[in-house]
Design brief:
315 residues; alpha/beta; 5-stranded parallel beta sheet; 14 helices; 5 strands
Length: 315
C-alpha cells in the first residue's frame, strides 16, 4: 500500500515573518548555504542595520560576490526580493535596539583568556538568543500538526544519538508520565529494529542538530517507509533529516567552538520539546493532571523529608 504524504506547510512569506524570524531563518540556513551565499548571510548577520542601508550592488561587493548571488540568497531564505530583505533587516535592527541591542553584547566565541564571569555572560547571552530566535522562527502551524500526530499516535518512537539522545530521553520520560506509549532509542541497530513494528498511526521523531547524523537519519527514513508519521527536530531546515520528515521543527542555535559540549543547541531543543509536550498534554488536560499527580506521588516517599508542595511536573 502506497504511503500517503501529508500536505507540507508552505513557506511563509516575508510579509508574514517577524523581524526576529527573518534573522532566525538566515542563521538556520547558514550550514546548508553554498559559500557565495554564506558570505552574504555573514555580512547581513554581522550588522543588520548597516546591511539594510546598502544597495544590492554594495552588499554584493561587501560579500565579495555577485548581485545574482544576493538575489538567490533572498529566495533561499524565503524573501521575495532585495527591497523586502532591506525592510526586514531594518525592522530586525530596530527590534534589537528596542530590546537593548545597543548594549555591548558578549561575543559568540569563548576565548582562552576569558574570565569565568565573561564565560557565564557569553553562555547566558547565547542561550537566551537561541531561545528567542528559535521561538521567533518556529512555525506554529507545523508544531500544531506535530502535537496532533503525537497526541493521537498508537506509539511514539524517538531517535537521538549523543547529546540529542538526552533530549530524546527527556521527551520520552514526559510522554510516558502522562500515559503515552513512548520509546527512546539511542542505538542505531535498536532503532532500526523498532521501526519494523511501526505503521500508519504511529509517530517517529528524530533529533539531530546538524540533521546529517546517519544513525538518526536512517531510522527516520525506515519509519517513513513503514507509513509512520515522521517528525524531525533539527537546526538545519534543508538537511537530510528535514527532507526525510513529514513535519520539521527547527531550532536556531549558534554554537561556539565548544560544540562538542552541545550547549546552546541542547537548550533550544529542550525548549521545542517542552512546547510539543505541553501541547500534547493540554489535549487531555484532566487526565494529564491526574497522571502527573500519580507519578509524582509514586516517588514522594523516597524523599528524606517532606518538602513544601511543588508542581507535579517537577522533580
Amino acid at each position: 500500500m502506497a504511503r500517503q504524504e501529508p500536505p507540507r506547510t508552505p513557506a511563509r512569506s516575508a510579509e508574514d515573518a517577524s523581524p526576529a524570524g527573518t534573522l532566525a531563518r538566515i542563521r538556520a540556513a547558514l550550514p546548508s548555504l553554498p559559500p557565495s551565499e554564506r558570505r552574504v548571510a555573514d555580512a547581513v548577520l554581522a550588522d543588520p542595520a548597516h546591511a539594510s542601508e546598502l544597495s544590492i550592488s554594495a552588499l554584493a561587493q561587501q560579500a565579495k560576490t555577485s548581485v545574482a548571488t544576493v538575489m538567490r540568497f533572498c529566495k533561499t531564505v524565503g524573501i521575495a526580493n532585495y527591497p523586502q530583505l532591506r525592510l526586514a533587516l531594518a525592522a530586525a535592527a530596530a527590534r534589537e535596539n528596542a530590546l537593548g541591542g545597543k548594549r555591548p553584547a558578549p561575543g559568540t566565541d569563548i576565548s582562552a583568556t576569558d574570565t569565568l564571569g565573561e564565560i557565564v555572560s557569553k553562555i547566558i547571552y547565547n542561550e537566551v538568543r537561541a531561545l528567542e530566535d528559535s521561538g521567533a522562527g518556529l512555525d506554529v502551524e507545523v508544531l500544531g500538526r506535530a502535537v496532533d500526530a503525537v497526541a493521537g499516535a498508537r506509539r511514539i518512537d524517538i531517535f537521538g544519538i549523543g547529546a540529542s539522545a538526552f533530549v530524546g530521553q527527556d521527551l520520552h520520560q514526559k510522554l510516558h508520565r502522562i500515559g503515552h506509549m513512548a520509546f527512546v532509542w539511542t542505538d542505531r541497530h535498536a532503532a532500526l529494529t523498532a521501526t519494523a513494528l511501526l505503521g500508519p498511526g504511529d509517530v517517529a521523531l528524530a533529533i539531530s542538530h546538524s540533521g546529517e547524523t546517519e544513525d538518526t537519519v536512517e531510522p527516520l527514513q525506515a519509519a517513513a517507509d513503514r507509513g509512520a508519521t515522521t517528525i524531525a527536530l533539527t537546526n538545519v531546515p534543508r538537511s537530510t533529516l528535514a527532507e526525510s520528515a513529514d513535519l520539521v521543527l527547527t531550532t536556531c542555535a549558534r554554537e561556539t567552538p565548544f560544540r562538542s559540549g552541545a550547549t546552546v543547541s541542547r537548550i533550544a531543543q529542550l525548549a521545542l520539546i517542552d512546547c510539543l509536550f505541553v501541547g500534547v498534554a493540554q489535549r487531555s488536560y484532566d487526565s494529564t493532571t491526574a497522571a502527573l499527580e500519580q507519578t509524582y506521588g509514586a516517588v514522594q516517599r523516597r524523599r528524606r523529608s517532606q518538602s513544601p508542595r511543588r508542581t507535579p511536573g517537577g522533580e
